[in-house]
Amino acid sequence: MADKNYQVFQEVYDLLFDKSLYPAWADFCQEALDRYLPGQDHYRLLDVACGDGEFALEMLDRGFDVRGYDLSEDMVARAQTRLAEAGYKDRIYQGNMLEDQAETGYDLLTLFCDSLCYLEGPEELSRCFLAQAKALKAGGLFIFDIHSAYQMNQVYPGYQYIEEWDDAVFTWRSEQVRGEGTIDHLLNIFVEDPETGYYERHEELHREQIFPVSCYQDLLKQAGFGDVQVSADFSFEAPGPESQRLFFTCVKEG
């Protein structure tokens, strides 16, 4: 059932995900590189938790030398196919963001789409940051985003979304049952069986959490990132009270 759930949900994600986020992330990275690593004509990028490869493809098309990895075997297969169809082979592999990677010396590491919010506590955050520091060259950039406290505590709780098609219904409900800084997303898809007319239910639970900004800053510095800048919503402006997405731009010491 897990594999079938994955196939069904992935089709829905492809339909509903805001594709404009990929060039927005790419533009943010380019501006960060212009600020911190100007003058290079070639950048090596490692996309951590690369998902289905859409962002990796965006950066490859912009001339970056990209590798990417994801914990999900299904996502890796999907990303490999996507990139191969675009003419890019042997770019994606299976890996864990908490573990050291074989290749090092990257100019840029990216970890987007709030993937870091799925880690379970400061200990896992520390392991992740240490692993990313080892993969970067001295002076390289690690850029990631997380949900803001406003998004987690004010926007998400009680959020509901429903999408209907001729043969399927998708529902999304977000609940804050584990306290501030946490959110549980309950996703359901009801797909019609063309032979019987009955609907089959597929469900997923996504559990996310965030920590105080100072926690991320302290752990990043302990991992070897000397300069850590926090901004909001695809800009380099300081976060405001209603910012929804926080960006961390981190420079490895050396």
Automatic annotation (TrEMBL):
GO biological processes: methylation
MF terms in GO: methyltransferase activity
Full protein name: Class I SAM-dependent methyltransferase
Domain Methyltransferase: 46-140
Keywords: Methyltransferase, Transferase
Keyword field contains Methyltransferase: yes
InterPro entries: Methyltransf_25, SAM-dependent_MTases_sf
Entries under Pfam families matching the protein: Methyltransf_25
PANTHER family hit by this protein: TRANS-ACONITATE 2-METHYLTRANSFERASE, TRANS-ACONITATE 2-METHYLTRANSFERASE-RELATED
